[in-house]
Amino acid sequence: MSRPPNYEFQEWWNKQRAKDHADDHFSSSNSDDTKFLTVNIQSPDSAGAAAAAAAAGKDRSRSARQLSWIYLLKLNRIAHSLAFVTNGFITLIRTANRRIATSSDRPRSDSKFYKIIKFFLILSVCLLFFELVAYFRGWHFSPPTLEAGVEDSVEYIYAKWLEIRANYLAPLLQCLANVCIVLFLIQSVDRFGLVLGCFYIKIRGLKPVAEMEYQQDSEYESMNPDDFPMVLVQIPMCNEREVYQQSIAAACVQDWPRERMLIQILDDSDDADVQFLIRAEVQKWQQRGVHIIYRHRLIRTGYKAGNLRSAMSCDYVKDYEFVAIFDADFQPAPDFLKSTIPYFKGKEDLALVQTRWAFVNKEENLLTRLQNINLAFHFEVEQQVNGWFINFFGFNGTAGVWRIKALEDCGGWLDRTTVEDMDIAVRAHLCGWKFIYLNDVKCLCELPESYEAYKKQQHRWHSGPMQLFRLCFVDILHSKVNLAKKANLIFLFFLLRKLILPFYSFTLFCIILPLTMFLPEAQLPFWVVCYIPGIVSILNILPCPQSFPFIVPYLLFENTMSVTKFNAMISGLFQLGSSYEWIVTKKLGRSSEADLAAIVENESSALLEGGVPKSSSESGLAELNKLEITKKSGRKKGNRLYRKELGLSFILLTASVRSLLSAQGIHFYFLLFQGITFLVVGLDLIGEQVS
């Protein structure tokens, strides 16, 4: 018996089919928007293949979008980089034009050294023009020959030039280059030996040992007064408007019995306002119970040496056993005397205890970073090695303690050179006195932040040693010290490190190397241009490892400074006028003002509680206000052009163009980057920028 038809199910089925047909039509027109409404039932194999195909398609579409975004980001970065470079180039051109315009208003007299550089520049430009003509005529590939009847032609002139440079000029240049290479290698060996000595000291843990040690923050009443010898503290200064307060405050808060210490402020300022401010600062500390006096010379002869000699002639100096000397920008720690005086006990032949400099502004700009590399090597390696092995080094002029008997024994301060500190150290060494260097005791100070101040400082530091060598050479030969010490003074201390170093550095890399591009018959090996300077730069930067990213700028900048050092060395050796120029290094007062202010504030509060009148602190505030007014009314200084550096930059860039014609790769890059460095320095774009 057949089942009766189910009309209700048939009606529901027809509606579902109609609905599905409508959904299919809708999904065909909007398939991308309604895929999530569709359920596809397939076998496991077919489902996996379909899923893999869908994922592959999705990955392809996604990777395409990602690539497009990556390319857009790269294009954006390239655009930003081009904009940055363009903006920097435009700023450089504007700065150069502004400084050229301002420098043209300053009358200058051409020095002989600058005239020589200008002659070489004109010669290099003429030779480059001549070589370019020969290159485009193909004479570099097939040199012309000397033939009769063509004496008036350009080809004959070029052939004659080839003969002259090959037979006469190139041999002389090659001979000079070989001499400089030998000097370069000798100086590099000396530098390597100093580094090995420093490593030996570090590995063995060698340090000077004091026979006694002071207890920090101890009560002076319970201690023997003989344990605290009489100490004289001298602070020579001259127009030190920015830093006088810091140095005076640092000396006045020394952790030393006040009745056993006297502070001399030796003011050579010729500015009446600065004199008034320094005198007021001294009076303020006198009211606080500090033994401090102010001295001002009416006849200011002898610069710093004359100032110190005048102070040592006072009658009360005979009551003191030691003298600590600090320049105006130096801030000794409160325990400085407690850290240095103990080394004199039991060492009657010890004349000097020298401490290390630490710089508060070493990261201020690129110039201060490069200076920090040089001075870190000087103190960490040179001073420490010489102090440990031979008990002699050059006194740094500040942050040291002298035995007054040793100063008197070697003749006291003399103003015959601009390096009075090195002068008295050499004379004390010849008299048999010994020195100690303390690498762990540091004294805060300030580096010159402008290239002008740094250049004047380096000129004085490199002309003075040659003056001194010329004056004391005979005294060294006739002294009673042994032959080894005489040889060390003459050959290492003076000749190698003070004369040969600036001579070969300037001659080899600023004169000979460019000339070898125009006289290719004379050659400099690539290891002289690249490998040896790189190794020496690495050795110099080892005591300051955080400065390794600046190794290339350091190498290029040291070659740039060789111009100033060579000029100063020649001036001092041959008694030229500029060798006796003594200019105070400009300071900006960037020392640790906050720390000193806290020290002074604590000291003031303690003294005020003891009954010191409050008016002293109020007068100090008044003097600070006057100082700010005087600062604002001071004459503003700006950046300038340096013609020697600019002239050498064009010589090196001209030689780099000539090296392209000979396809000398390493020489081209060295000349190019060295020329750019000279250009940057010549435009005064390194160091402090005054707008």
Describe what this molecule looks like in 3D.
A seven-stranded mixed β-sheet has the order 3-2-1-4-6-5-7, sandwiched between helices. It is globular. It contains 20 helices and seven strands. Helices cover 60% and strands 7% of the residues. By secondary structure, it is α/β, with parallel strands linked by helices.
Structural class of the helix and strand makeup? alpha/beta
The low-pLDDT segments are 26-42, 604-621, 631-635
- Report the sheet with the most strands, covering strand number, pairing sense and barrel closure: 7 strands, mixed
Strand content is: 5-15%
- H/E element order: HHHHEHEHEHEHEHEHHEHHHHHHHHH
**Widest beta sheet: strand line-up:** 3-2-1-4-6-5-7
Distance between the termini: 113 Å
Query: What is the radius of gyration computed over CA atoms, rounded to a whole number of angstroms?
Result: 37 Å
- How many DSSP helices? 20
Average of the residue pLDDT scores: 83
Strand count: 7
Described by the principal axes of the CA atoms, the overall outline is globular
Helical content, roughly? 55-70%
